[in-house]
Amino acid sequence: MNNSQLIAVCIVALLAVPACCAELLLPQNRTAFYSEEAIEFAVAGLAPGDRATVALIPTDTMALPVDFTVTGTGSTITVANAISEYPEYSSVVEGLVPAVTQNFNALLAKVQKRMSGGLDFFFNYQWSRQLGKVNPLSGNTGGPLWYGETTSDFPQHGSLALTYEFPFGRGKPFLGNTNRIMDEAVGGWKITGIYEFLSGTPDSWGNVNYNGNWSFNNRPHESVVQSFNTTQFDTQNDAADQPGSYNLRTFPQYLLRTDPTKNTALSMLKNFTIWQRVVFQPRFDAFNVFNRHQLNTPNLTPTSSAFGKISTQINTGRNMQVGVHILF
Fold this sequence. Notes:
Blueprint: E1 6-11, E2 23-26, E3 42-44, E4 51-58, E5 66-71, H1 79-82, E6 100-114, E7 119-134, E8 146-149, E9 156-165, H2 180-186, E10 190-198, E11 202-204, E12 254-257, E13 261-269, E14 272-275, E15 278-287, E16 319-327
Antiparallel strand pairs: 1-4, 2-3, 4-5, 6-7, 7-8, 7-9, 9-10, 10-13, 11-12, 13-15, 14-15, 15-16
């Protein structure tokens, strides 16, 4: 056939027991083959003993067509395998191809000011996007190539830090002429406050059936009832009703976000210089001052009775400590 391209056409010629129809299942979506290529065929609709003729008709008018007969054996394949992208294989493994590529872009802004009266102000803000391309054979099985937010995408990140030195002691508005002992006791104390905001992590979904209009009403800080609208998901606990690994994925891999970080910390301290560069620093620290609970990812399994509910938290509650640091 001299490497001529051939078009596979199934011509049904039932020579034994009559049948309603026969259909070429394998290969699918193929328009050309080559002379040295091994071709595997599967024909549906043939009972054991039935025969059909498969003709390979060359596009090159100088080449001769090739006909051969297939006989029904009664063996079967699943519908899922028949309609898959590569039905002639039981599984496909992709190697030496990057599973994920990512792009990161950010805008940074910083404001710092040392004010009069012992107040220092520092504000830092970052707006960023980390978008990734996921290979469907590894990270998004059953669906098209996904390009969008990743689990490391946190668009909003802001922090505010304030440091204030109390106006007591020598050279300060209050007790400015006090003696050295009193100055060591009441002067030089500082209080520092830090507030941080960070966007929540994108929720990672499996392949689900969704029939809604994309109005999820996401409430990531809701722990009593469902944190988003679950009424438009298929929640039937039936394996035949839920999407399998062979179903084409139409639901995004990452959608909605968990509870954002909103944390406040306070510290009060004073430095006592003992000798040259040796500093004795007593301090009081409070973390998560307002005892805010940062909730975890909700249940994202539609067939679960807890679907959409959040049962755990990420952070810890308010924590306070008193200690001493020695700096040298």
